[in-house]
Every structure is written in C-alpha cells, then in structure tokens.
Amino acid sequence: MLNEIETVFNLMYKSGIEPGTVSYNSIIDGYVRSKEFWKAWNCYKEMQNKKITADNFTYSSLIKGVTNKDQKKEFNIIYKLFETIKNTNIADEILYNCMLDACVATYNFDIAKK
C-alpha cells in the first residue's frame, strides 16, 4: 500500500500538481502505519521547507509514530515539536492524548504528568 501512495505522490509532482496538506498527511500517515518514522519526519520537514501548513492530523500522525521505549531519539524530537505547538490553537484534546500515549509507550511518565 505504501508503494502505491508514494507512486501517486510522485505522479502528482510529475503532473505539475503541488501536493498540499491533505496529500502530505496521507503519506505521513502511511509511513507511520508502516513503522517508518524517519520517512514520515522527512515528509514533515519537506512540508516546512515548502511552506505547506501542517495541521492537527499532521502532528497527531507524527506523534503516533513513537510507539515504543526504544524510540528515545524520536520521542525527543516529537516532544520538542509538541512544545512548540501546545499553546497554539492547533493543540486540542486529540493531540494531547496522542502525546500522552507516546509518553506512556516510551516510558516518559514524568513528562506525561506535566
């Protein structure tokens, strides 16, 4: 399934169609579901470089990519990202719950209590 998503994404570029937030969200979510956190993160960075606005779905998908205690580096990156958006109108209950899940999955209980 991920190969098909990447193919369509690349076809958009070749056809002169610039992917927007929804397109990036789809591929980020696909990477996260396939346990490809770094590919998802690179898509997010590409969004930033292209000045494409991330939304709640973008952030919650990235946070969901951190699912186990061996992902310390990934958790630190996601936590820094969360810290930058937690006091904005983007942060909602779903985003906070995703962050709580990531804290528990990575054994970051002290952060979860904050």
Tally of contiguous helical segments = 7
Helix content: over 70%
Query: Which blocks of ≥5 consecutive residues have pLDDT under 50?
Result: none
**What count of structural domains?**
1
Order of helices and strands: HHHHHHH
Strand fraction: under 5%
The termini sit apart by 38 Å
Structural class: mainly alpha
Return Rg in Å.
14 Å
Major sheet attributes: none
Oligomer: single chain
Query: Would you tell me the overall average pLDDT?
Result: 90
Broad shape: globular
The overall strand count is 0
Structure description:
It is built from 7 helices and no strands. It is mainly alpha-helical and 114 residues long. It has one domain. The radius of gyration is 14 Å and the shape is globular.
Keywords:
70% helix; single chain; mainly alpha; globular; 114 residues
Brief synopsis:
This protein is 70% helix and 0% strand. The protein has 114 residues and is mainly alpha-helical.
Structural topology:
Elements: H1 2-14, H2 21-33, H3 37-49, H4 56-64, H5 72-85, H6 93-105, H7 109-113
Helix pairs in contact: 1-2, 2-3, 2-4, 4-6
